Protein backbone atom coordinates (compact mmCIF):
# COMPACT_ATOMS: atom_id res chain seq x y z
CA UNK A 1 0.00 0.00 0.00
CA UNK A 2 1.25 3.49 -0.89
CA UNK A 3 2.30 5.55 2.09
CA UNK A 4 -0.31 8.20 2.98
CA UNK A 5 0.60 11.79 2.07
CA UNK A 6 0.00 14.29 4.87
CA UNK A 7 -0.49 17.95 3.89
CA UNK A 8 -0.93 21.03 6.08
CA UNK A 9 -2.43 24.06 4.30
CA UNK A 10 -1.85 27.55 5.68
CA UNK A 11 -4.89 29.79 5.16
CA UNK A 12 -5.31 33.38 6.39
CA UNK A 13 -8.72 33.57 8.11
CA UNK A 14 -9.96 29.99 7.97
CA UNK A 15 -13.19 28.43 6.80
CA UNK A 16 -15.72 30.92 5.38
CA UNK A 17 -13.18 33.71 5.72
CA UNK A 18 -13.42 36.85 3.63
CA UNK A 19 -11.08 37.16 0.68
CA UNK A 20 -10.05 35.18 -2.36
CA UNK A 21 -7.53 32.88 -0.67
CA UNK A 22 -10.01 31.54 1.84
CA UNK A 23 -12.65 31.20 -0.89
CA UNK A 24 -10.47 29.02 -3.10
CA UNK A 25 -9.37 26.99 -0.08
CA UNK A 26 -13.02 26.51 0.92
CA UNK A 27 -13.72 25.26 -2.60
CA UNK A 28 -10.78 22.85 -2.30
CA UNK A 29 -11.89 21.71 1.15
CA UNK A 30 -15.37 20.89 -0.16
CA UNK A 31 -14.02 19.07 -3.23
CA UNK A 32 -11.69 16.90 -1.15
CA UNK A 33 -14.48 16.09 1.30
CA UNK A 34 -16.88 15.11 -1.48
CA UNK A 35 -14.40 12.87 -3.30
CA UNK A 36 -11.51 12.06 -0.91
CA UNK A 37 -8.37 10.91 -2.76
CA UNK A 38 -6.85 7.67 -1.56
CA UNK A 39 -3.87 7.89 0.78
CA UNK A 40 -4.21 11.64 1.31
CA UNK A 41 -4.70 13.50 4.57
CA UNK A 42 -5.19 17.27 4.34
CA UNK A 43 -5.32 19.59 7.35
CA UNK A 44 -6.13 23.30 7.18
CA UNK A 45 -4.57 25.76 9.61
CA UNK A 46 -5.17 29.47 10.18
CA UNK A 47 -2.19 31.83 10.33
CA UNK A 48 -3.81 35.25 10.62
CA UNK A 49 -7.24 34.49 12.04
CA UNK A 50 -10.49 36.44 11.93
CA UNK A 51 -11.05 39.59 13.95
CA UNK A 52 -8.42 42.02 15.17
CA UNK A 53 -4.94 41.89 13.67
CA UNK A 54 -3.65 42.04 17.24
CA UNK A 55 -4.73 38.41 17.63
CA UNK A 56 -2.74 37.23 14.61
CA UNK A 57 0.42 36.32 16.60
CA UNK A 58 -1.62 33.85 18.65
CA UNK A 59 -3.06 32.21 15.52
CA UNK A 60 0.42 32.05 14.00
CA UNK A 61 1.92 30.46 17.12
CA UNK A 62 -0.88 27.91 17.22
CA UNK A 63 -0.28 27.08 13.54
CA UNK A 64 3.45 26.62 14.13
CA UNK A 65 2.84 24.45 17.19
CA UNK A 66 0.46 22.30 15.18
CA UNK A 67 2.94 22.04 12.32
CA UNK A 68 5.76 20.95 14.63
CA UNK A 69 3.55 18.47 16.46
CA UNK A 70 2.41 16.86 13.22
CA UNK A 71 5.96 16.75 11.91
CA UNK A 72 7.43 15.21 15.07
CA UNK A 73 4.76 12.51 15.13
CA UNK A 74 5.29 11.59 11.48
CA UNK A 75 1.95 12.95 10.29
CA UNK A 76 3.17 15.77 8.07
CA UNK A 77 5.02 15.55 4.75
CA UNK A 78 4.45 18.96 3.18
CA UNK A 79 3.22 22.47 3.99
CA UNK A 80 1.16 24.37 1.42
CA UNK A 81 1.78 28.09 2.02
CA UNK A 82 -0.77 30.53 0.61
CA UNK A 83 1.15 33.77 0.18
CA UNK A 84 0.07 37.40 -0.25
CA UNK A 85 1.65 40.77 0.56
CA UNK A 86 2.64 42.47 3.83
CA UNK A 87 1.42 40.63 6.94
CA UNK A 88 0.93 37.43 5.01
CA UNK A 89 4.55 37.47 3.90
CA UNK A 90 5.89 38.33 7.38
CA UNK A 91 4.02 35.37 8.84
CA UNK A 92 4.95 32.96 6.05
CA UNK A 93 8.64 33.87 6.30
CA UNK A 94 8.51 32.51 9.85
CA UNK A 95 6.56 29.41 8.86
CA UNK A 96 8.93 28.63 5.98
CA UNK A 97 12.03 29.21 8.11
CA UNK A 98 10.83 26.79 10.78
CA UNK A 99 9.76 24.26 8.16
CA UNK A 100 13.23 24.37 6.58
CA UNK A 101 14.94 23.95 9.96
CA UNK A 102 12.95 20.75 10.55
CA UNK A 103 13.53 19.40 7.03
CA UNK A 104 9.89 19.89 6.11
CA UNK A 105 9.34 20.76 2.43
CA UNK A 106 6.89 23.47 1.48
CA UNK A 107 5.01 24.72 -1.57
CA UNK A 108 4.22 28.40 -2.15
CA UNK A 109 0.87 29.39 -3.69
CA UNK A 110 1.23 33.04 -4.73
CA UNK A 111 -1.83 35.30 -4.48
CA UNK A 112 -2.31 39.05 -4.39
CA UNK A 113 -2.32 41.42 -7.32
CA UNK A 114 0.15 43.86 -5.76
CA UNK A 115 2.96 41.45 -4.91
CA UNK A 116 5.39 42.93 -7.44
CA UNK A 117 5.09 46.40 -5.94
CA UNK A 118 5.25 45.02 -2.41
CA UNK A 119 8.49 43.13 -3.09
CA UNK A 120 10.17 46.11 -4.78
CA UNK A 121 9.35 48.46 -1.90
CA UNK A 122 11.17 46.37 0.71
CA UNK A 123 14.71 47.05 1.86
CA UNK A 124 17.55 44.79 0.70
CA UNK A 125 17.47 42.60 3.80
CA UNK A 126 13.76 41.84 3.45
CA UNK A 127 14.13 41.34 -0.30
CA UNK A 128 16.81 38.73 0.38
CA UNK A 129 14.53 36.96 2.84
CA UNK A 130 11.69 36.90 0.33
CA UNK A 131 14.09 35.67 -2.33
CA UNK A 132 15.10 32.79 -0.02
CA UNK A 133 11.45 32.04 0.71
CA UNK A 134 10.84 31.39 -2.98
CA UNK A 135 14.22 29.82 -3.71
CA UNK A 136 13.78 27.16 -1.02
CA UNK A 137 10.25 26.17 -2.06
CA UNK A 138 9.83 22.76 -3.68
CA UNK A 139 7.22 24.19 -6.05
CA UNK A 140 5.80 27.67 -6.62
CA UNK A 141 2.19 27.79 -7.78
CA UNK A 142 1.14 30.93 -9.64
CA UNK A 143 -2.22 31.83 -11.14
CA UNK A 144 -1.17 32.90 -14.62
CA UNK A 145 1.57 33.52 -17.14
CA UNK A 146 2.33 37.06 -15.97
CA UNK A 147 3.03 35.78 -12.45
CA UNK A 148 5.19 32.92 -13.71
CA UNK A 149 7.34 35.43 -15.58
CA UNK A 150 7.54 37.65 -12.51
CA UNK A 151 8.73 34.86 -10.22
CA UNK A 152 11.30 33.55 -12.69
CA UNK A 153 12.66 37.04 -13.31
CA UNK A 154 12.87 37.69 -9.56
CA UNK A 155 14.26 34.26 -8.60
CA UNK A 156 15.82 32.72 -11.73
CA UNK A 157 16.83 29.50 -9.98
CA UNK A 158 13.14 28.57 -9.59
CA UNK A 159 12.54 28.36 -13.36
CA UNK A 160 11.86 24.61 -13.34
CA UNK A 161 9.69 24.77 -10.22
CA UNK A 162 7.12 27.43 -11.15
CA UNK A 163 3.74 25.95 -12.12
CA UNK A 164 0.65 27.74 -13.39
CA UNK A 165 -2.51 26.56 -11.65
CA UNK A 166 -5.42 29.02 -11.96
CA UNK A 167 -7.96 29.38 -9.19
CA UNK A 168 -11.11 27.31 -9.65
CA UNK A 169 -14.67 26.88 -8.42
CA UNK A 170 -17.38 24.30 -8.49
CA UNK A 171 -19.54 24.15 -11.58
CA UNK A 172 -22.68 26.18 -11.15
CA UNK A 173 -25.74 23.96 -10.59
CA UNK A 174 -27.64 26.31 -12.87
CA UNK A 175 -25.83 28.02 -15.70
CA UNK A 176 -27.43 31.44 -16.06
CA UNK A 177 -29.76 31.91 -18.99
CA UNK A 178 -29.59 35.61 -19.88
CA UNK A 179 -33.24 36.33 -20.49
CA UNK A 180 -34.90 39.41 -21.94
CA UNK A 181 -35.87 40.56 -18.43
CA UNK A 182 -34.17 43.62 -16.96
CA UNK A 183 -30.56 42.45 -16.46
CA UNK A 184 -28.85 42.77 -13.10
CA UNK A 185 -25.22 43.92 -13.08
CA UNK A 186 -23.20 42.38 -10.25
CA UNK A 187 -19.92 43.45 -8.65
CA UNK A 188 -18.29 41.24 -6.00
CA UNK A 189 -15.22 42.46 -4.16
CA UNK A 190 -13.90 45.12 -1.85
CA UNK A 191 -15.63 48.46 -2.37
CA UNK A 192 -12.47 50.44 -3.03
CA UNK A 193 -10.59 52.55 -5.55
CA UNK A 194 -8.27 49.66 -6.39
CA UNK A 195 -11.21 47.55 -7.50
CA UNK A 196 -12.45 50.35 -9.77
CA UNK A 197 -15.66 50.94 -7.83
CA UNK A 198 -15.61 54.75 -8.29
CA UNK A 199 -15.34 54.24 -12.06
CA UNK A 200 -18.09 51.62 -11.97
CA UNK A 201 -20.45 54.01 -10.19
CA UNK A 202 -19.69 56.75 -12.73
CA UNK A 203 -20.28 54.30 -15.58
CA UNK A 204 -23.63 53.33 -14.07
CA UNK A 205 -24.46 57.02 -13.85
CA UNK A 206 -23.97 57.27 -17.61
CA UNK A 207 -26.53 54.49 -18.02
CA UNK A 208 -29.20 56.26 -16.00
CA UNK A 209 -31.37 56.95 -19.06
CA UNK A 210 -31.62 53.22 -19.81
CA UNK A 211 -34.74 51.89 -18.04
CA UNK A 212 -34.03 48.16 -18.05
CA UNK A 213 -31.23 47.38 -15.57
CA UNK A 214 -30.35 47.17 -11.89
CA UNK A 215 -27.02 46.69 -10.13
CA UNK A 216 -25.63 45.24 -6.92
CA UNK A 217 -22.20 46.28 -5.61
CA UNK A 218 -21.48 43.67 -2.93
CA UNK A 219 -18.50 43.73 -0.59
CA UNK A 220 -17.02 45.46 2.42
CA UNK A 221 -14.93 48.62 2.24
CA UNK A 222 -15.77 52.30 1.77
CA UNK A 223 -19.53 51.92 1.56
CA UNK A 224 -20.19 55.43 2.87
CA UNK A 225 -18.43 57.18 -0.01
CA UNK A 226 -19.93 54.82 -2.58
CA UNK A 227 -23.44 55.26 -1.20
CA UNK A 228 -23.09 59.05 -1.20
CA UNK A 229 -22.00 59.13 -4.86
CA UNK A 230 -24.80 56.77 -5.87
CA UNK A 231 -27.25 59.13 -4.20
CA UNK A 232 -25.74 62.16 -5.96
CA UNK A 233 -26.21 60.43 -9.31
CA UNK A 234 -29.83 59.59 -8.52
CA UNK A 235 -29.24 55.82 -8.63
CA UNK A 236 -30.36 54.86 -5.13
CA UNK A 237 -33.43 52.99 -6.38
CA UNK A 238 -31.38 51.00 -8.91
CA UNK A 239 -28.05 50.26 -7.24
CA UNK A 240 -27.80 48.24 -3.99
CA UNK A 241 -24.82 48.11 -1.62
CA UNK A 242 -25.50 45.18 0.72
CA UNK A 243 -21.97 45.04 2.17
CA UNK A 244 -20.05 41.80 2.55
CA UNK A 245 -22.03 38.65 1.76
CA UNK A 246 -21.28 35.01 2.50
CA UNK A 247 -20.99 32.17 -0.02
CA UNK A 248 -24.72 31.43 0.09
CA UNK A 249 -25.42 35.08 -0.64
CA UNK A 250 -22.97 35.02 -3.54
CA UNK A 251 -24.76 32.02 -5.03
CA UNK A 252 -28.12 33.75 -4.68
CA UNK A 253 -26.85 36.88 -6.42
CA UNK A 254 -25.25 34.85 -9.20
CA UNK A 255 -28.62 33.21 -9.85
CA UNK A 256 -30.24 36.63 -10.30
CA UNK A 257 -27.48 38.38 -12.23
CA UNK A 258 -26.93 38.54 -15.99
CA UNK A 259 -23.69 40.54 -16.03
CA UNK A 260 -20.67 40.42 -13.72
CA UNK A 261 -18.18 43.27 -13.74
CA UNK A 262 -14.82 43.76 -12.05
CA UNK A 263 -13.08 46.92 -13.32
CA UNK A 264 -9.98 46.53 -11.12
CA UNK A 265 -6.65 48.30 -11.49
CA UNK A 266 -4.71 45.34 -10.05
CA UNK A 267 -5.55 41.65 -9.62
CA UNK A 268 -3.91 38.26 -9.51
CA UNK A 269 -6.76 36.01 -10.68
CA UNK A 270 -10.03 37.05 -9.00
CA UNK A 271 -12.46 34.45 -7.74
CA UNK A 272 -15.49 36.59 -8.59
CA UNK A 273 -14.68 36.46 -12.30
CA UNK A 274 -14.26 32.68 -12.16
CA UNK A 275 -17.55 32.32 -10.25
CA UNK A 276 -19.29 34.53 -12.81
CA UNK A 277 -17.95 32.39 -15.64
CA UNK A 278 -19.13 29.22 -13.89
CA UNK A 279 -22.62 30.70 -13.67
CA UNK A 280 -22.64 31.63 -17.34
CA UNK A 281 -22.72 35.38 -16.75
CA UNK A 282 -21.49 37.88 -19.31
CA UNK A 283 -18.28 39.22 -17.73
CA UNK A 284 -16.86 42.73 -18.11
CA UNK A 285 -13.39 43.05 -16.59
CA UNK A 286 -10.04 44.75 -17.03
CA UNK A 287 -6.99 43.00 -18.54
CA UNK A 288 -4.91 43.03 -15.35
CA UNK A 289 -3.02 40.23 -13.62
CA UNK A 290 -3.90 36.85 -15.10
CA UNK A 291 -7.41 37.81 -16.24
CA UNK A 292 -6.33 37.72 -19.88
CA UNK A 293 -5.37 34.07 -19.37
CA UNK A 294 -9.05 33.19 -18.92
CA UNK A 295 -10.97 35.97 -20.69
CA UNK A 296 -10.65 36.77 -24.39
CA UNK A 297 -12.33 39.99 -25.43
CA UNK A 298 -15.40 39.36 -27.55
CA UNK A 299 -15.20 35.58 -27.17
CA UNK A 300 -16.06 34.73 -23.55
CA UNK A 301 -16.23 38.22 -22.03
CA UNK A 302 -15.50 41.88 -22.61
CA UNK A 303 -12.27 43.60 -21.55
CA UNK A 304 -11.99 47.35 -20.93
CA UNK A 305 -8.97 49.46 -19.94
CA UNK A 306 -8.57 50.14 -16.19
CA UNK A 307 -9.96 53.52 -15.19
CA UNK A 308 -11.79 54.10 -18.48
CA UNK A 309 -15.32 55.08 -17.45
CA UNK A 310 -16.53 55.55 -21.02
CA UNK A 311 -15.29 52.12 -22.15
CA UNK A 312 -16.86 50.46 -19.11
CA UNK A 313 -20.16 52.27 -19.65
CA UNK A 314 -20.14 51.35 -23.34
CA UNK A 315 -19.53 47.67 -22.61
CA UNK A 316 -22.30 47.53 -20.02
CA UNK A 317 -24.66 49.44 -22.35
CA UNK A 318 -23.93 46.92 -25.10
CA UNK A 319 -24.75 43.96 -22.86
CA UNK A 320 -27.86 45.53 -21.37
CA UNK A 321 -29.33 46.12 -24.83
CA UNK A 322 -28.24 42.84 -26.40
CA UNK A 323 -29.57 39.69 -24.68
CA UNK A 324 -28.19 37.50 -27.47
CA UNK A 325 -24.67 38.79 -26.84
CA UNK A 326 -25.06 38.19 -23.11
CA UNK A 327 -26.13 34.63 -23.84
CA UNK A 328 -23.30 34.06 -26.28
CA UNK A 329 -20.55 35.37 -23.98
CA UNK A 330 -22.02 33.64 -20.92
CA UNK A 331 -22.24 30.28 -22.65
CA UNK A 332 -18.64 30.57 -23.86
CA UNK A 333 -17.50 31.55 -20.36
CA UNK A 334 -19.27 28.56 -18.81
CA UNK A 335 -17.71 26.24 -21.38
CA UNK A 336 -14.22 27.62 -20.64
CA UNK A 337 -14.86 27.12 -16.93
CA UNK A 338 -15.87 23.48 -17.42
CA UNK A 339 -12.68 22.79 -19.33
CA UNK A 340 -10.13 24.77 -17.35
CA UNK A 341 -11.45 26.17 -14.05
CA UNK A 342 -13.43 23.33 -12.47
CA UNK A 343 -12.45 22.63 -8.85
CA UNK A 344 -12.25 18.86 -9.37
CA UNK A 345 -9.66 19.32 -12.12
CA UNK A 346 -7.85 21.79 -9.87
CA UNK A 347 -7.74 19.29 -7.00
CA UNK A 348 -6.30 16.55 -9.24
CA UNK A 349 -3.55 18.85 -10.51
CA UNK A 350 -2.79 20.06 -6.99
CA UNK A 351 -2.47 16.50 -5.72
CA UNK A 352 0.09 15.81 -8.45
CA UNK A 353 2.05 18.92 -7.39
CA UNK A 354 1.97 17.81 -3.74
CA UNK A 355 3.23 14.34 -4.59
CA UNK A 356 6.08 15.71 -6.67
CA UNK A 357 7.03 18.19 -3.96
CA UNK A 358 6.99 15.75 -1.06
CA UNK A 359 9.08 13.10 -2.79
UniProtKB/TrEMBL annotation:
Entry-linked SUPFAM superfamilies? UDP-Glycosyltransferase/glycogen phosphorylase (SSF53756)
Q: Which CDD domains does the annotation name? A: GT4_PimA-like
The record's listing under InterPro entries reads: Glyco_trans_1, Glyco_trans_4-like_N
Q: Where is the Glycosyl transferase family domain?
A: 180-334
Transmembrane annotation, as ranges: none
Pfam families named in the record? Glyco_trans_4_4 (PF13579), Glycos_transf_1 (PF00534)
Q: Where is the Glycosyltransferase subfamily 4-like N-terminal domain?
A: 56-167
Protein name from the UniProt record? Glycosyltransferase family 4 protein
Give the organism, scientific name.
Marichromatium bheemlicum
Tell me the organism's taxonomic lineage.
Bacteria, Pseudomonadati, Pseudomonadota, Gammaproteobacteria, Chromatiales
Amino acid sequence: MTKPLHILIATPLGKNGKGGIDRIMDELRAALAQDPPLNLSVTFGTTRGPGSILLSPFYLLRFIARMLSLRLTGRLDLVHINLASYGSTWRKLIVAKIASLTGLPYVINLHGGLYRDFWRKQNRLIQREIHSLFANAKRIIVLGEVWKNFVIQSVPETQDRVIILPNATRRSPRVQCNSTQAPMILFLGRVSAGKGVPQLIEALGQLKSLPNWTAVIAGDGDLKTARARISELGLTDRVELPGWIDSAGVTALMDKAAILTLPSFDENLPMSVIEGMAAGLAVVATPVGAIEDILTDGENGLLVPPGDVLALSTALHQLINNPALRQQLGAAAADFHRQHLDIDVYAQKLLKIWNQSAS
